[in-house]
Model the fold of this input.
Amino acid sequence: MIAAAGRLVGAGLGHIVASIPSPSSGTLSIGPLKIHAYGLMIALGVVAGVWLLGRRLEQDGIGTRDDANSISVWAVIAGVIGSRLYHVATDWSKFAHHLTNIPKIWQGGLGIPGGLLFGIGTGAWMIRRKGIPIARGFDAAAPAIAIAQAIGRWGNYWNQELFGRSTKVPWGLEIDDAHLPEGFAHGTLFQTTFLYESLSNFALSAALIMVGRRTKLRPGHLMALYIMGYGVIRFFVEGLRIDEAHHVGGLRWNQWVALAAVVGGAVYLAVSNARAADVIEAETAAELEAEDEAIEQADAEDEAAVELEDAEVDDEEVEPEVDEPETEPDPANLDEDELPSSHD
Done:
């Protein structure tokens, strides 16, 4: 009996260790209140991102936590709208005959590229209104966006969506029959793409913070590094997914978008560094030219001073010595011994 119980417990533990179970429901019930876990994960990600943004603005001395709240409210609203529109546009076949499903974001379906485009654009507008330098504001926001995405990605876990191809790795994801794709048998495990992207974004956020502290980057470069880093992450994660998507040239559409992000970030860094080098070169040339002019002016002043001294020397004429005529001594001033004798 004890042995049988032990084998049962061992089998259960082995099953848990060998896979990641899916949640039984996508909602959390608190009494009569039901909360969609997908939306909760996004909300938690936003809270964490806003907190980090406010802290970084204050550390850099360019803003406050209140500024971060004001900026984030509009940026998040725009980001959600943009991400939903991107998802609808890239998966229009799912919504063409079900237009009422377009606003149902709690069912999943947010395209990160659209969210970044709308969110960052709106954030730039708000940053400027707050009087914060846009490039430095972007740098403060870069790690915050990454950490928000890292937490928000867990919404896919609760919705049992956007997982990868089948696998036998110990951390494979279980999917219940209601969400199981066609052609796969019950009990098939899938790649945990949500986990890969979440962990990668946590690592990206930490790396951006470390680089920003240890390296003196030009304003705006940290945001470019984030865009490049997320593009690399998304390219590989997207390649594991098996959900329906448009393919172009053998790659999923979002992989091309990810590559464009990497290339765009790299081009921006290259152009920015080239301009910085030109500015430094121009400033250096101007400084050297100014130094040469100062040296030439000093030499000219020295030459002028020498010429002036030579001219003063030439103008000084040496007067000839003139022999003064001998005068008779005044008898009144002569001593008695010096007076002429009458016998002379």
